[in-house]
Amino acid sequence: MKEELVRCKDLSKTFTVGNSQVLAVNGVSVSFQKGEFTSVVGPSGSGKTTLLNLIGTLEVPTEGKIIINGTDLSAFSTEELTNFRRKNLGFVFQFFNLVEGLTGFENVELPLIFDSIPYETRQKRVSEIFKEFDIEYLQGKFPEELSSGERQRVSIMRALVNEPILLLADEPTGNLDTKTGQTVLDLFKDLNDEKGTSIILVTHDLSAAKRALRTLHMHDGKITFDQINEEPILDKEN
Ligand SMILES: Nc1ncnc2c1ncn2[C@@H]1O[C@H](COP(=O)(O)OP(=O)(O)OP(=O)(O)O)[C@@H](O)[C@H]1O
Ligand SMILES: [Mg+2]
């Protein structure tokens, strides 16, 4: 039976810029189930990133609420939100956001340091994840020595190292060539298929969106269409 992971209830976010206000997310109510892979599409400025950041607790809603895994986040302080985020959520961004002066290994280790995980456990966990994804050769390299695709792989490891209950990705293939983008999408698909990782993927690319079983279409801060992709592209070769 399906189990609810995220519920957004009448969610709105208004940004004030000077004298004007932008309603970036406008009364969105939507749920995500455990193990679900959902993509979010829509024109530039339609509120995709804002919705993702609200769910990721990086932004605080102006109205409405978010419940993740049964926990209502409305009453959380900034510090409680930070702790919740570190323990439960993983983020992948378009521009990777790796720390330049740190090796691949150290970048992936960072979330565990923030989470006060002891040294020995960290070393073990980080080594394991590089091994599991077969990219041990990237451990000792600095971001500036890596290709874009390799950087994104390391940043995905970083997002996964603390075993988040939800992976949030904002245009993760936006800075990759088509072929490299495909391998990153394959990785998301495998994570979802094989490990049941819950994923919300924001993308401009409709074919990338179709890798997910469900696609939300956004327009002017609202979800205008909640679509089940009848034939998600399962075959990696296509
Ligand atoms: N921090 C902010 N301050 C002011 N306005 C913002 C802020 N973040 C987003 N907005 C505005 O909110 C609206 C939605 O932006 P958002 O970034 O969520 O859209 P998007 O769908 O992710 O667009 P894109 O496809 O270009 O990334 C836009 O009008 C944007 O200008
Ligand atoms: Mg965006």
Search tags:
binds adenosine-5'-triphosphate; 238 residues; single chain; 7 helices; alpha/beta; binds magnesium ion; 28% strand; Rossmann fold
Q: Could you describe the 3D structure shown?
A:
- The chain is of the alpha/beta class.
- The chain is built from 7 helices and 10 strands.
- A 6-stranded mixed sheet has the order 6-7-8-3-9-10.
- The longest helix has 18 residues, at 178-195.
- Bound molecules: adenosine-5'-triphosphate and magnesium ion.
- The site of adenosine-5'-triphosphate has 12 residues, from strand 1, strand 2 and helix 1.
- Magnesium ion is lined by residues 48-49.
Produce a short descriptive summary:
This protein has 238 residues and is of the alpha/beta class. The chain has helices at residues 48-55, 78-88, 104-114, 119-132, 148-160, 178-195, 206-209; strands spanning 4-17, 20-33, 37-41, 63-68, 71-72, 89-92, 166-170, 199-202, 214-219, 222-228. The chain contains seven helices and ten strands.
- Tell me the radius of gyration: 18 Å
Count of DSSP E strands? 10
In DSSP terms, counting alpha (H) and pi (I) runs of 4 or more, how many helices? 7
Ligands, deduplicated: adenosine-5'-triphosphate, magnesium ion
Sketch the topology as an H/E string, one letter per element: EEEHEEHEHHHEHEHEE
Based on the structure given, which CATH architecture is correct? 3-Layer(aba) Sandwich
Measured as a percent range, the helix fraction is 25-40%
Secondary-structure content class: alpha/beta
- Here the CATH topology equals Rossmann fold
Summed up, the domain count is 1
- Strand fraction equals 25-35%
